[in-house]
Design goal:
Ribonucleotide Reductase Protein R1, domain 1, globular, 11% strand, two-stranded parallel ribbon, binds calcium ion, 16 helices, 4-stranded antiparallel beta sheet, 43% helix
Length: 446
């Protein structure tokens, strides 16, 4: 389904690059303040000094990783941005192609992974990635990299490919997330595995929901939600709030069993804690997870669907290329999937863009090691709408034109402004160039 970028002139190519550069510049200058000022203080003893240096290395590494994450997210975002003139869009496509060729199939945000980087950091990476990045990066970042004490090792993961358990904390998403979880646990093998440990798919999904949802009722039976906790001999009870780390999942009855936690937790994330619809990037999600979510409970994953998923992966096809989700719906229909629950799970949870990244950096100085981790979320920014001069609501994003996308209820605050223009201006709104920005939502030293 990949379309060849149309030929374009040099000027447009230049424009595309300038656009990316200016966006990245703005973001980096904001991030510089957040990160460089934090955590590193002068300390007296030598041990403390190495500790401070290790922290400095880790924070610098995190800054570098953020730069790459941001670059990747910006490029992805611009690709899906309907407001961009075709020429510039072609430029971005061409640039993406160059990146893909030079990175040999790796994603930009992940080229740093597991690669010890010291004070020759940036040059090494440029050699490694065969990209001239010093033109893009902020001077402050390059200076910090050249002065990094010791070294750091970065690990970036794309959290959008996983299911966010905190979908369960959102009123409009929890039902669909619950259905999704039941499906993950209900494939014949998984069901058997859980059964051998005394849990049913429905029980496990309910325990997760009840831990997070704010009421005290058991979502499966007409009783309070306490008995799974008593059975698991827990001294704690449901938190009735979102999960703050993946490890916290172990406090949910069932997930205190190591095997269960080990098998399923790699498919889950808790970021962002304030989950929003369509944040699960189905284009990056592992096939087995997509297959599980689109297979009704107790059915085997059907062969036509599995074949289609594998072909799609091999061909590098992306659902996100079709903004109207038409290909997307057809794809599953032709794969033999057509039930209402599947349709709802996909409509509410699945999107086509990665927006959540976890960065874990080990900083090392004189054998003293410090680990810094952060989570960054890429968000659509309010936009100066050239056609009306007003700010566009965050929720009023490119999904607006998607038939049946449930978002009208969140539009209340701007309804007055938009009321009469919703239909007439839809086309014009589509043309406004949207911007995105990356925001650190969580950071700490382990
Ligand atoms: Ca509850």
């Amino acid at each position: 389904m990949a379309t060849k970028p149309s030929p374009m002139n040099r000027r447009e190519q230049g424009l595309a690059l300038v656009l990316v550069l200016s966006l990245v510049g703005v973001i980096l200058s904001m991030l510089a303040e957040v990160l460089f000022e934090s955590e590193v203080v002068s300390r007296a003893s030598i041990g403390e000094r190495d500790r401070a240096k290790a922290e400095m290395a880790a924070v610098t590494g995190a800054q570098l990783a953020l730069f790459f994450v941001d670059l990747e997210a910006q490029v992805e975002f611009l690709k899906g941005n309907e407001g961009i003139p075709p020429g510039i869009k072609a430029g971005i496509d061409a640039m993406t192609k160059t990146l893909e060729d030079q990175l040999g199939g790796r994603s930009l945000s992940q080229i740093l992974n597991d690669f010890p980087i010291g004070s020759q950091g940036f040059e090494t990476i440029e050699d490694f990635a065969q990209l001239n990045l010093s033109k893009l990066a902020d001077e402050k970042l390059i200076a910090a990299l050249n002065a990094v004490p010791g070294y750091f090792v970065v690990k970036v993961s794309d959290e959008s490919q996983k299911l966010n358990l905190n979908f369960l904390a959102d009123r409009s998403l929890s039902k669909h997330m619950r259905n999704a979880l039941i499906r993950v646990f209900s494939l014949p093998q998984e069901r058997e595995f859980l059964d051998s440990l005394g849990y049913s798919p429905e029980r496990l999904a309910s325990n997760m929901q009840d831990y997070i949802d704010t009421d005290n009722k058991d979502s499966m039976e007409s009783s309070d939600e306490l008995s799974p906790y008593t059975q698991a001999k827990f001294t704690h009870t449901a938190k009735n709030g979102p999960l703050e780390s993946l490890e916290e999942l172990r406090r949910v009855p069932g997930f205190h069993i190591d095997e269960i936690y080990r098998v399923f937790s790699p498919y889950f994330t808790v970021w962002p804690m304030q989950a929003d619809k369509e944040q699960w990037n189905i284009d990056k999600a592992p096939n087995e997870l997509v297959a599980a979510l689109t297979t009704p409970p107790e059915n085997e994953v059907n062969d036509p669907l599995m074949d289609r998923l594998e072909d799609r992966l091999a061909a590098g096809e992306k659902f996100g290329q079709d903004k109207n989700r038409r290909n997307f719906k057809e794809f599953f229909k032709e794969g033999g999937v057509s039930d209402k629950t599947t349709e709802e799970i996909l409509r509410w949870l699945a999107g086509f863009q990665s927006s959540v990244y976890k960065i874990v950096v080990r900083g090392v100085s004189n054998q003293v090691e410090r680990v810094f981790e952060l989570v960054a979320v890429f968000e659509e920014e309010s936009v100066d709408d050239a056609t009306t001069g007003k700010k566009e609501d965050e929720n009023n994003n490119q999904n607006n034109e998607n038939e049946g996308t449930p978002q009208n209820e969140t539009e209340g605050s701007t309804a007055e402004e938009n009321n009469n223009e919703n239909d007439e201006n839809k086309d014009e709104k589509k043309k406004a160039i949207k911007k995105g920005k990356i925001r650190v939502v969580y950071q700490r030293f382990r």
